Every structure is written in structure tokens, then in C-alpha cells.
Amino acid sequence: MTMHVSRRTLLGLAGAGAGAYLLSACSGDGESSDPTAPQTINWWHIQNTEPMLPVWAAMANEYKTAHSNVTITIQPLENEAFKAKLTTATQAGDPPDLFQSWGGGVLKQQVDAGLVKDLTDDLKDLVAGILPAAMQPYTIDGKIYGIPFDIGMVGFWYNKDLFTRAGITETPSTWAALLDAVRKLKTAGITPVALAGKDKWPAHFYWSYLAMRIGGVGALQKAVDDKNFDTPDLVAAGERLKELVDLQPFQKGFLGAEYGSPDGQAATMGNGGAAMELMGQWAPAVQGSSSTSKKGIGDKLGFFPFPAVDGGKGSVTEVFGGGNGFAVGKDAPAATIEFLKFLLTAENQKRSAQTGAVLPTVKDATSAIPDANGKAVAETLAKNTGFQLYLDQAYAPALGQQINDSVAEIIAGKKQPAAILKDITQVAKTA
Amino acid sequence: MTRPSTVSEMRRGDPATDPPATGPGTARLRGRQPRPGRGRVLAVFLAPALALFVLLVLAPIVVAGYASLYKWNGFGLPENFIGLDNYTRAFADPTFRGDLRRGLVLVVLSLVVQLPAALALAMLLNQPLRGRAVYRLIFFAPYVLSEVTTAVLFTLVFSPNRGLGEGVAKWLGADAGTIFADPDTVLFAVFLVVSWKYFGLYMMLFLAARQGIPKELSEAAVTDGATAWQAFRHVTLPLLGPTIRISVFLSVIGTIQLFDMVWVLTGGGPIHSSETLAVTMYQYGFRRFEVGYASAISIIMFLLSLVFALLYQRVVLRRDTAGAITTQGGQR
Fold it and tell me: Complex ipTM above 0.90?
């Protein structure tokens, strides 16, 4: 049989061929293992605002100038937008080459699905210079799947003026003293605590820290290993939190408040509308940028670690925290690893640290932290005797979200602590 | 409440554009034998749309139905088959059951408050009023905004310490700053915003339908001694029937699908008090990575909409859509 092929058919075929080629090119740029071949690094990060946005861009440009064969496509994304976008990309089996990661349970899911590169051998030297606590979330079954560029911890940020006005002479070192301070602040007509109830994760800091102070730093890991959160220590953590909630310490409308919005938790602190908040090392920066004056409360801001609980097994030197890092996608071109090393040279870590938005993980760069608050956090971190990663990162997403939801129910005063720990246990057993 | 799913649905039931649907004439036309070759033409014209529909609508529904039978976190292929467990789990889940209850509350509120208000306003703006066009524009304007813009706007208005709503409420001697933060009021606050955005659309639909009714009919009624209320109740209202019925339909379907507005306004909180089916589905699918369970919720949403749509069309819209769906050939 002869086949009549018209010009139009031929054109159509050519078009389909070109389309197929383009499609394969989209995913195929990682096949080359030669770092000198032309290649494009697709980089997603979440430092989408000043001060880090231009710093990353400058570093990428410097790298491109030094390596003419490498093109770097940067996608700065807002935190929640990043999570949603990464979800679709990873579910399609096509992660970006270099992307934000907090380590922990989410990273483990990506590792299990074979979406990220094992960096253990390639980055041995780099890892040797990084704080061990910072590496912990990125180490899964003894192998390294990500590199942290930032490490921090959660603690209380307080307004010195408001504490003085309420007659509080020293920062609380026990839970009882903290509750006492809250009562004094209320008596003085000051909102004791700012909290973003809509976002949920800020509230989970309270329960997690209480669980660490009462049950010791291993309690939360043990709970997830045993798939049982219904233990006396963890219920007690809920009961202690309820003591605080019962004092009604939060700002007006806190259940609907977001963390970073113009009327949210950070802004309430930054505008001097509340005396303290429990938040990570980024708190001073966000207080400043979301306050009306854009400056926050300046040197009136102080830091103290989460207090001890009487009779608890944990100590004040155990910290709850985490950081930001980068993971490398499975199809990333060879230069991605070189570029990652470049981002984490001591010199570049110092540049990041000088912005005040990043607490460096490279030991040689810690001297560059510009402000007293950052230094206070770094010192507490350096002296830590135990480390627990944020639960919504450490645990599998289903369990992490359940803890956020359940703690929110205590904060809203709608459910008893014993009941919520049964809810969490149920998810831990099935998820 | 809320939006029409398609333009064609919006237009259906509009007396101005509806063909006179039932009559012996149309039945005779419909009974005519198709010309030979018509099938081929139909196939050619139908194929592109059908291909897209299968690819983008039917296939995803089938895939979601398949995924809903698995415990699956969305990575790789689903392997852990658990039968209907996701469905039994949903009906035991207090959040999901709460979604159904809240959905029902929103439907009832929009049928009892929003649609009658829109109807009343439409009647008012049909009167010869000075600046009538301006009023119509003002009331319709919110519909033009996107859901997200509307939600962000109201977040600012009801910001607890510095919002406009707080100021106005104080002036009225009330306290509005926390209506989105209080689990007992948040659902009504969401309803308020949804109504603000969509009642203009229904007002326009009613207004258009009202203008399609010949003036002579009410005039004749009044001449016969009917009061204004009687003329409205027994002449205008029955003639607005098709539009009212289709508005109810759009409102209910829109409520089942309500997502963007709630997501931006409250995220479903505090403590699930404003969560809808679509929000719960998103939470499980994209926050907790329980894609199997989320698929089951989406299938339930789909079935709810489908069953409601079919029943409503069969029972309530029977007369309005006669010939399009519910009758075959010349049968009524």
C-alpha cells in the first residue's frame, strides 16, 4: 500500500516531534554528570523579601560569572505558596534542582519516594564545618539529604518596657513564674502574649516546649516511635498549657490572627501592643517589617529561653528549633552541588548572617551575627544539651498537622488536653 | 448563594432568552428524522470538545475515584488498597460531618436571607427611581471582584484592632472586631461576605426576569382591584418562577463547592468552625498528604452535587428545562 503524505501531515509530524523534544528537554537537563557542560539549575527558595532576596540573587550572579556554562533560574516563593507548588512538583515526580527544605518528616517522605539526592559523599568536607545540631534534621538513616544554611530556635521575645511597667523585675525561669508574670501584666492592663491562632504553628511551640520540659528532650521522639502520645507527661504538657490559656493572656481576636499580617502576632509585638511572644530567631526581623513604624521596638526587645517546669525531666538548655536548608532534586545537574557549596562558604555565610535574617550554620561564620538578640539566640543554641526539631517538620505531615490542629483546640478552650492526646495518638497509629 | 458554574446555566431559565419550550409545534420538529450524513458532521464537531471533556473532566474523576480506594500519600503509585475505608472514615470524621452541617446552614441561610433580599432589591430597583442605574451598578459591583480580593478586603475591614468594621461597630455600640475569630460567629461572618459578593448577581438575574414580564399583566391585575402585594404575589412572583428556581440551584451548587473565599478569610478556622467540604479536602490532600482520603472527600462532593443536580432538574426544573433533558421525543 502506498501512503500519500501531504505537506500538511509532514508539518504536523514535525511539530509533534519538536513538541516531544521540548517536553523531554524539560526534564532531561540533569542527565549530564559533567559539571563543565552547559546546564541550568532551577532554584526555589523562600527568602522572597528583603533582606535575603537580593543576597541570594547576587550570589547566583557571582557563580554564573565564574562558571559561564551554568545558568541559574531562581524562583523566590512565599512560604505557603512554596509548599503548595512543591507538593504538585514532587507528586509529579519532578522536583526542582535545588529547593528549600526544613528536613525531618517531609524530607523523609521525599527520600522514600526517591526524589532527592543523597549528598553524604559529595559534601563530606562541607558538613564537617557545620554545627551538628543543624545537621540533625537533614540526616536520615545516617545519610545526608540536605544542607542547612540557617539554624535557630524558639524562645520568648519580650518587651522590656512593658515588663518593667508591670513590675516584673526578672525574666521568668519557671512556668509558675511565667504565669505569675502574665497575671501581673494583666493587672497592669497590658496584653501579656501575642499569638497567631489562625496559623496554628505558633501555638504548637507552647505545647512542644512544655512536653520537652516535663518529659525530657527524648519524650517527643519516643512518642512517635511508640505511636503513643497518650502518656502522663504529654497530657501534663496540655494541662500546663491550659493553665496559661485560662488566664486569657492573648490579644483581642487572636484566634483569627495571622503571624505576619498587618494586625497579626508579629505586628502586635512590633507595635508594642503585647508584652511577649514565643517565636523563633526571625522574630525581631518580622516584628520590624510588619510594624507600623517598620522598625519594631528596637532595643526594648529582649530574649529569654522557655522556662523550666517544676518537677519536669527536661532542662532549660534543651532547645526546640530548626532551620532552613536546601535539598537537591534527583535530576539536578552536576553543578548544583558545586553551587550549593558556594552558597555555604564561610564568606557567603557571613554575608547572609550580616543581613540579620539568617543565623549561620557554618561555625566559622557565627562571628558575623550583627545584633545582640541574634547573638543571644546563637549562644543559647551553642550551649544546647538537647535539640528537638519543629514537630510539623519532624513528623510526617499528617501527624504534624494533627498536632497543630489539636493544640489549636486547647488554645480555643474547646477540648480537654486528655482528649486531644487521644486524637493525636489515633493519627500516629494510622498515618 | 454563590456563583453559576457555567454561563449557559445562568442563561437558562431567563425568560428573555428562553425559547418557548413546550408546545405541540416543538414536539413535531423534534420528531423529524435526522438527515443521512448528519452523524458524521456531529462527530466532527463534537470530537474536539468531547476529547477535552474526557481528558480534563471525566478522566480526573475516574482517577480520583480510583485513588479514593487507596491509602496513598501522593508519591509514586497507590499500592495500599483499603477498599471503602476512606469513605467510612469520612462519615465518622467529626470535621467532615461538621462540613455537611455547616454546608446545610449556609444553604438555608442563602435561601432564607440572601435570595429574598436580592429579590426585594430587584423589585425596588425596577421602580422609576432617581439614579436607578447608579444603584444597580453599586449593588452589582462586588460581583466583579474576585473571591480572593473580596476575602482580603474583608480581612482588613474586620481586622480586630484597626479595621473599619470595628470603628463602625463601636459607633453602633457593638463589637465587630472578633467575628472572624469567634468559633460561634465565624460561619455567619463568612455568610455575610459571600452574600455581599453574590447577592448583586441574583439581583441582576431577578431584575432581568422582572423586566421580561409585560407591564400589562400587573396593570390588568391592578385594574381588577388587586393590591400591590396581591399583584406581586399572584402575578409577578409566579412569572419569576424559572429564574428563582435556577437561582436556588446555582446557590446550592455554589455552596457545596465554596472554597477560595473561606480559605483566604479564615482557612476554615478557628478550630474548623468555618470549614467547608472543599477546605477539608484541601487540608488532607495538600497539607497532610493523605491524597487517598482527600480523593474520597472529593468524590463525595461530586456525588452530592450530581445527585442534587439530577433530582433538582427532574423534580423542580422539570417545566423550565422540558425538552432539554427530561423529555424524549414528544413525551412530556
Answer: no
